Amino acid sequence: xxxxxxxxxxxxxxxxxxxxxxxxxxxxxxxxxxxxxxxxxxxxxxxxxxxxxxxxxxxxxxxxxxxxxxxxxxxxxxxxxxxxxxxxxxxxxxxxxxxxxxxxxxxxxxxxxxxxxxxxxxxxxxxxxxxxxxxxxxxxxxxxxxxxxxxxxxxxxxxxxxxxxxxxxxxxxxxxxxxxxxxxxxxxxxxxxxxxxxxxxxxxxxxxxxxxxxxxxxxxxxxxxxxxxxxxxxxxxxxxxxxxxxxxxxxxxxxxxxxxxxxxxxxxxxxxxxxxxxxxxxxxxxxxxxxxxxxxxxxxxxxxxxxxxxxxxxxxxxxxxxxxxxxxxxxxxxxxxxxxxxxxxxxxxxxxxxxxxxxxxxxxxxxxxxxxxxxxxxxxxxxxxxxxxxxxxxxxxxxxxxxx
Length: 404
Prior knowledge:
The protein is of the alpha/beta class. 42% of the residues lie in helices and 15% in strands.
């Protein structure tokens, strides 16, 4: 019998000493309720140092913090099972609707999306190829990239068995296509491009080869979630655990329906494809859906003004020290294009360096991680909880004052 039914039945028992005594000990019926359980501190239990992130969304710092509605989505869906094929399809359909594309799916981060997108371009829906990748017979599939776009994460592409072909300029890109070419990859945050977005798309489309855009950290602005499919990219990825503030290990892959369907076939819950080790649990799928919905509905102008205000508040406290100057700087993007406070000082008057300040922040209590260069300290504000703004300002001020 369920507990609620037992309690409901008790309400029918006459409240006499005999009645109570026959069902429950007298003392338990009228005793004070037990004290609430002590809140468990897993950071303390495991000896892990909590960190205040006064930098940017870095994976080694666990990305960003999930929004309350994301945590609610995770917690509210953790108590029941779900058919993962159905969930991936239905979450993907809703995400595609929100992003105004043909199809979408949740991946285990943007790097997984790169692997799955490449696999989709190689295998399509061919079950034999899906089974054999990355050990397909014959010449290796080729993915075209600009030489200046090569970066650490393109290893996700070569994991599929594909060979990366480097090009410089439209003319060289044009000549690089052959019978083995399966995809062309554009790294959106590259510092230099010898082929523009428009040229890249035009050349690839001429050869009828799918295009992939890695824009993992490229929101804000929110418009970037829509910009690149309108330009014509066939597949696009954004990280879910950065400024969208979804689960750190979640990402988005969206674009052309046939390619997204092929990517799903290369992923879990299918039992043996290349993407099986990169499974996404149901809570992360629900959480990613909730995060994207929250992000699209957010008042981005208000949020931006709050970030600017944080910079001003920290600047005002630090500039009470002689020679210390602060300047609000917005990164040119497209990755991490949000405001930070750059702090400089006369090192003959404040006898410390940004490097020393960073180390003092990191090793102090609380531990604070920021960024900087030889002549400048960079304080990120977008990942701070409201109550942490003054904590960061006060701690930086203390360190600088000690060096005067």
